[in-house]
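Researcher: Re-running this chain for the archive, since the previous output was lost when a drive failed. Same request as before.
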Amino acid sequence: GGVAGAPMEYEEFQASQASQPFAFETQDDDDDTPQPFNFIDDHEEDGGGGGGADGPAAAGAAADDMMTCAVCDDGGGASAASVGAGAGDGLEFVEEDEREAPVPSELPAWACSYCNVHTPSAVVKCVTTGRWFCNYRPPGLPASCIVYHLIKSRNNEVTLHAESPLGEITLECFLTGTKNVFSLGFVPVKEDLVVLLARDVDVSGIEDASDWDLTKWQPLVREKAFVPWLVKQPTDSEALRARPCSVAQISRLEELWRTNPAATYADTLSAEGDALDGGEPAPIQRQYEDAYQYQSIMGPLVRLEAENDRQMREAQTQEALSVRWDMALNKRRLAYFTLPSNEAELRLVGGDELLLRHPGDASHPPFEATGTVVRLNHASEEVGLELRSGGGAPTDLSHGYSVDVVWKSVAYDRMQTALKTFAVDETSVSGYIYHRLLGHEVEQPPVRTPLPRRFGAPGLPELNHSQVLAVKTVLQKALSIVQGPPGTGKTVTSASIVYHLCKQNTGQTLVCAPSNVAVDQLSEKIHMTGLRVLRFCAKSRESADSRVEYLTLHYQVRHLDSPANAELRKLQALKEELGELSQADEKRFNSLRRRAELEILSAADVVCCTCSAAGDPRISSLRFRQCLIDEATQAPEPECLIPIVLGAKQLVLVGDHQQLGPVVMCKKAARAGLGVSLFERLLELPGR
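Model: Regenerated structure tokens:
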């Protein structure tokens, strides 16, 4: 036997699995090494210098004003088959709407037993266990799922998927029949043909083997994963939707399979959804090897905090409340009630969702309705709740009500999405910011932009020497930290920085802060400079009082007066009058509103929102080259990452790490360092 002189067609290969040599026709096997992520540096786009050398940090400070600008620079059988290998194919990054695609409710039988990736060309089956695994390496896992399973289970034979380009075949050596994938490799036979051979196999006396150059033998498993021309890597959109799983959970699952082959991923979780790993989570690092290690540490901490928050919020039921009823201008029911003074830890904020309940009586059926907190009077502790559907509300009853908190995971989900995006999307940040956020010491590329003659901004107070130096330094750097105690004019300085960033004409600027109060204050200051400012609010807060309502997206949509938006205004008025629209009118209204929102968003110079709101699809579908985060010391690091991964190439963090830090309620997460802000961690880096 020998290697077939020409590759066979796919149909022929299926009919001759027992007799033909294992050969592959390849399209490009010059370099089958998986390509590393290439991150776009600022200097690549702006013509600046490269990275790699260390250099001193630049800082602007005035001792009398205590305003400093710390700039983070440097610092079965064998067969023949034809297949397009495309070795070395790069990852193709998808648009935001592809990432939002829903995950199928029922996964196919070949879904990866670890992470649920189920693309046929990206999965293989362990012959011994009969389980499917993919060629993707989840964050924190030291190898791809299939390689990790083979090592943990001490197995070494795999079968490709029936719908893969090669069909359902078990990998084996053409000459010896060896099926141990860790001993298998391939050798080019012709320009577009390779053959599978075991390591150090003797080919002497083999007909046609003279064409085989054994010095070019390469293993099938490289960098702890199968070569991608044989088993594909999942696309980035699939990786984003992969089930999060820690090394501890995967190890636990492998242990369970030894005694219970029917065990599933759910068996690694407690009744509350916590991983049964029993120990403390991995602590945060000052520096990370790569974004996957970063995600593998931060992700579990976010999950711990989310679960702790859920348990605390859902346990805060208030009973025996008195309610007074009113009607809002939008014809929705308003319920006002006062919380007991000893329940201050409820910590309600505008936009929170509550469930209002009444057990009913002889003349009233039981009642419950979900509403949004639209008013908070901290002096009297009175809460105003706007009900989504007030039909059947017992407005003649004022006593005996109960209130439950409706927990929402949106903020935590957006943190996890940001961590995944940072790990897999090379366009999420510039190369320099990517490396600096991971703590790598790289040279800061210069920002090539002409400096203004005057560093103040129209409509704002004149800057003092310290503030001027801070603005000047920030405009020339890709990553800056501005630190100043209360009263040193950080808000005015931030507004001036944003003004000059916008005047560089390099795109829209995204301005964020952890709290709505801080965002409102900064929005107002920036608006005073004459820039077109848009204050973006979460839908749950659109009914809440705000002193900058005239800048909000929902306000501007409601007050559009152009002829092109006449139909939208008509449907809006109809909805406010009737309370709801027909199905067809509602669909048309939503379509027109989305178009108007996009038009207004695109026309703004500056978009202001909370860090969490930056994960709203209406914002995350856009790209912001410049990003400023105020009160950056008050947000956990994953929360700050939400706006950063929307394309940041010039990043400014403003705050004071000597003041209030992030509030982390989960003791485990706090001990692991989730309470350390990105601002503070970057300050501690060497070579800052």
